[in-house]
Amino acid sequence: MTKAELIGVMAEGACITKAAAAKALEAFTGAVGKELKGKSGKLGLVGFGTFSVVKRKAREGRNPQTGKTIKIAAKKVVKFKAGKALADKVK
């Protein structure tokens, strides 16, 4: 599903315009990003899932084209764990 398709489904489901749905989606993604960047780095939505920020250690990797060993820097990544209700819908 693309972002445009998601906006269409949201607009239809909430009986609002596509413009309003797009604005709501942008507000949601902005709020998630802001919360993950904040102190706690965690956002839980009961029944949907939990977004969190985890630190990935520096490690060595391999360039697939040349086979040479390269260093991969440490960085923070976003992790999502699906909630029970969402996991049950997928089964």
Features:
91 residues, alpha+beta, two-stranded antiparallel ribbon, 3 helices, 5 strands
Structural write-up:
The chain is α+β, with helices and mostly antiparallel strands and 91 residues long. It is 43% helix and 31% strand. It has 3 helices and 5 strands. It has helices spanning 3-14, 18-37, 84-90, and strands at residues 42-45, 49-56, 59-62, 69-72, 75-82. The strands form 2 sheets. The protein has a 3-stranded antiparallel β-sheet. α1 (3-14) crosses α2.
Number of helices: 3
The amount of beta strand, in percent, is 25-35%
**Low confidence ranges:** none
Whole-number mean pLDDT:
94
The general outline is: elongated
Order of helices and strands: HHEEEEEH
If strands are numbered along the chain, what order do they take across the biggest sheet? 1-2-5
Structural class: alpha+beta
Helix content: 40-55%
> Main sheet?
3 strands, antiparallel
The N- and C-terminal alpha carbons lie at a distance of: 19 Å
Per DSSP E runs of 2 or more residues, the count of β-strands stands at 5
